[in-house]
Amino acid sequence: MRVTRLLQLARNRRPVQNFADRPLPMDAVEAILEAARYAPSAREAQPWRFVVVQEALARHRLAQAAFNHPHLRSAPVIVVCCARIHSHVSGSGRPSYPMDLAAATQTMMIAAADLGVYGSWVYGFRESHVRPVVAIPEDVPVLGLLGLGYPDGLANLPERRPREEVIAWDQWRNEDVRRSLP
Predict the structure, then answer these.
(1) Domain of residue 81, CATH code
(2) Tens of pLDDT, residues 121-157
(3) How far is the first Cα of the chain from the last one, in angstroms, to the nearest whole number?
(4) Is there a contact between 19 and 35 (Cβ–Cβ < 8 Å)?
(5) What is the extent of the structural domain holding 101?
(6) Nearest CA-CA partner of 139 in 65, 79, 80, 84
(7) Taking a C-beta distance cutoff of 8 angstroms, is the pair 96, 41 a contact?
(8) What's the rounded Cα separation, in Å, for the pair 57 and 78?
(9) 97-114 and 26-37 helices cross at what angle (nearest 10)?
(10) 7-53 pLDDT per residue, tens
């Protein structure tokens, strides 16, 4: 199998324990955000809006809103990932913006990794506490917080589940069913 740069970045990803007290160059932050602009979205609606937070007190308040998450407490940049809810609604009636924002956030993390920057995606937070920090209107969903920075300690990446547990071909198979197959 040919190992592409993207596969290499994904395989070598390691979770950040803390971010170093070192600012990110503005051109790196802008490149990461530019990558997000080109993420896929349903019907190319691009329902995202990103608020980049660098000011120390605001970052502290965002970390508090995220239950004092250590990755956000030490991140020199926090990107607040929001959605405009006028995005596409699929035939099932589900709005596309949660998936669209997930794709954009993952794209930022990959772009960051390519630049030697680490990202920590946090989705456990009190939305009502995030809004006033960066003046987000009530009708705009906040879907994630992305801490960006240089690492000050990395954790080991957990073992990946075996391929046969996460990939099925042609139809779903439970482990018990698979064991009974010839």
Answers:
(1) 3.40.109.10
(2) 999 999 999 999 999 999 999 999 999 999 987 777 7
(3) 27
(4) no
(5) 5-180
(6) 84
(7) yes
(8) 12
(9) 140
(10) 877 777 777 878 999 999 999 999 999 999 999 998 888 999 999 99
- AA identity, residue 98: P
Domain count, the chain: 1
SS (H, E, C) the chain: CCCCHHHHHHHCCCCECCECCCCCCHHHHHHHHHHHHCCCCHHHCCCEEEEEECCHHHHHHHHHHCCCCHHHHHCCEEEEEEECCCCCECCCCCECHHHHHHHHHHHHHHHHHHCCCEEEEECCCCHHHHHHHHCCCCCCCEEEEEEEECECCECCCCCCCCHHHHCCCCCCCCHHHHHHCC
**Hey, CA dihedral for 158, 164, 165, 171, is it positive or negative?**
positive
Query: Are the C-beta atoms of 25 and 149 separated by less than 8 Å?
Result: no
- 32: nearest Cα among 122, 144, 108, 118: 108
